[in-house]
Amino acid sequence: MHLKKAVIGGFLLTSTCAFPNHDGNDAQGLPYLHPRLRTIRSNTGASISFTEASKAGICETTPGVKRYSGYINLSRDAHMFFMFFEARQDPHNAPTTLWLGGGPGSDSLNAAFKGKPTENLTEYWTTQAAAKVDWDAVQAFYGALPKLNPRLKSRHFNLWTVSNGGHYGPTFFRYFYDQNTKIINGKLRGQPLAFDALGIINGAIDTGIEQTGDLACARSLEDVEYILDLPVRVTLMYGDADFVSNWLGGEAVSLAANYSNAAAF
């Protein structure tokens, strides 16, 4: 199930979740919101309830770096817990980076925040459905950014992931890019972004090429090939200490990819 933490801009961690109402019924709604949380409305129709975590000295301790945490409320029964860290250097012009944790076993903080997954199980087990939820959250975040901090101007966007994120990271990036193209061409309403890079660390991209077994997992090489022909950068980072997703598999994937500059690579 694609419940994960994510990173934006300076840095944003999110975890998809839904919560039961406090009246005891099965309907889902917002969790209890502390009075200190401030709520702002995004121009997408979603809202963000947050507090400035930097005042509590949580996670990031660099003087002057602002950080926020709270919920991106996509609908009555879909909420994204997030932590946003502004960049340490030139935060007003720094690009945005969305981090998708890997797994299973990745430290994505899911158990701490999720009550029930958003979407029903049949739908949410698909990567495409998860990509849509994350894209909606990214759009909601950018739509509310002028109210969160109007000095954050950059719309340059990166996506980085690790491990099993090699399965869904490329699919997410492709979906995001295609949706963004529709926005730029006036076919869809939203916040236009400037896509810069996709990064994958020790990624399990295509198990049929990288290793034996575990073939039930998605094969995302086609999405990687698609992205390699886009005007963006692609980085595959692998080490030798990861037993499953090491540099041997990464090299195999890089050599198997079929794209316009494959021969030159």
From TrEMBL:
GO molecular function: serine-type carboxypeptidase activity
Superkingdom of origin organism: Eukaryota
Signal peptide positions (record): 1-18
Stored InterPro entries: AB_hydrolase_fold, Peptidase_S10
Keyword field: Carboxypeptidase, Glycoprotein, Hydrolase, Protease, Signal
Any one biological process term the GO annotation gives: proteolysis
Pfam families from the UniProt entry: Peptidase_S10
Similarity comment: family membership: Belongs to the peptidase S10 family.
Protein name: Serine carboxypeptidase family protein
Species this chain originates from: Coccidioides posadasii (strain C735)
